[in-house]
UniProtKB/TrEMBL annotation:
Lineage per the UniProt record: Bacteria, Bacillati, Actinomycetota, Actinomycetes, Geodermatophilales
Protein name, entry field: PaaX family transcriptional regulator
InterPro entries: PaaX-like_central, PaaX-like_N, PaaX_C, PaaX_trns_reg, WH-like_DNA-bd_sf, WH_DNA-bd_sf
Gene3D superfamilies given in the database record: 1.20.58.1460, 3.30.70.2650, Winged helix-like DNA-binding domain superfamily/Winged helix DNA-binding domain
Species of provenance: Modestobacter marinus
Residue span, Transcriptional repressor PaaX-like central Cas2-like domain: 102-146
Residue ranges of every copy of the Transcriptional repressor PaaX-like C-terminal domain listed in the record: 184-264
Domain Transcriptional repressor PaaX-like N-terminal intervals: 36-80
One example of a Gene Ontology biological process annotation: DNA-templated transcription
Length: 275
């Protein structure tokens, strides 16, 4: 791979989730041979051991099913992973993902026993994906009106979890810009956009594997979406790069998607033929 691909560094799980949402969900209902995942992640620099390890972890978490046919292992999506990927895909495919139309804010407070660290981690991850920033310990805020159902569902079966959420508008005289800067690191967020643009707002390298590039693009885009809470533009400055990031992503997807789909179909067909 060229520098455009090899300089990108993503966890195997990020790459698998990007692959699942873009090319597997609603297209391949049957489990796919392990070889498919080894080949795709191998093309972007992930070792076979690391790929097998993340497949095992996702299976243990209920996001993949594992099937054995002789010496060939295959992995398929579960209902849980399909729901998560569909939720993510809606945001991935939004034409203007960084535009905030609402003037409201969603506030959320939660308390959770310290012993539930795994649930706390998953809850914080879901809050970040939903656009929340932390004002202070246990008090989170997000721009717009956020559907809290999926967040509450993270800890539905956990004893001792308390979540309260409500929609509010700033009172007159409130320095909204101040709490925006407290809840989010705008300099770091700008850097995330500029890094995305630096890597993708240039001609695609000739002769490179479109499937590998498409997988990297998807993982990078999801990382950017996860980082950006979609704040009102008046708090970000006129030169905020969000719209440019969205335009670049759309251009690169158009250039790669059909070729990546064809390459993935060939890979699946060849892997199944080897059984």
């Amino acid at each position: 791979m060229t520098d455009q691909a090899t300089e990108l560094r993503f966890k195997p799980q990020e790459l698998l989730l990007a692959l699942g949402g873009a090319l597997i969900l609603d297209t391949y209902e049957d489990p796919l041979p392990t070889r498919v995942f080894l080949d795709v992640l191998g093309s972007v620099g992930v070792s076979a051991d690391a790929t097998r390890s993340v497949l095992t972890r996702l299976t243990e978490r209920g996001l993949l099913t594992r099937h054995q046919d002789g010496r060939v292992a295959s992995y398929g999506l579960t209902e849980t992973s399909r729901r998560v990927l569909r939720e993510g895909r809606r945001r991935v495919r939004t034409p203007d993902p960084f535009h905030q139309a609402s003037s409201d804010w969603t506030l959320l407070s939660f308390s959770l026993p310290e012993s539930q660290r795994d649930v706390r981690s998953r809850l914080r991850s879901r809050l970040t994906w939903a656009g929340f920033g932390c004002l202070r310990d246990g008090l989170w805020i997000a721009p717009g009106r956020v559907d809290l159902d999926s967040i509450i569902a993270v800890g539905a079966d956990v004893g001792g979890l308390s979540i309260d959420g409500f929609v509010a508008a700033p009172a007159a005289g409130t320095d909204v810009a101040r709490f925006v800067r407290r809840a989010w690191d705008l300099d770091a967020l700008r850097w995330e956009h500029e890094e995305f643009l630096r890597r993708w707002d240039r001609p695609l390298p000739r002769g490179e594997d479109p499937l590998a590039l498409f997988t990297l693009l998807g993982a990078h885009w999801i990382r950017l979406l996860r980082s950006d809470p979609v704040l009102p533009e008046r708090h970000l400055g006129e030169d905020w790069p969000g719209r440019r990031s969205a335009a670049v992503y759309g251009t690169v997807v158009t250039a790669l998607e059909a070729r990546a789909q064809a390459a993935f179909a060939d890979l699946v067909r060849d892997a199944r033929a080897r059984r």
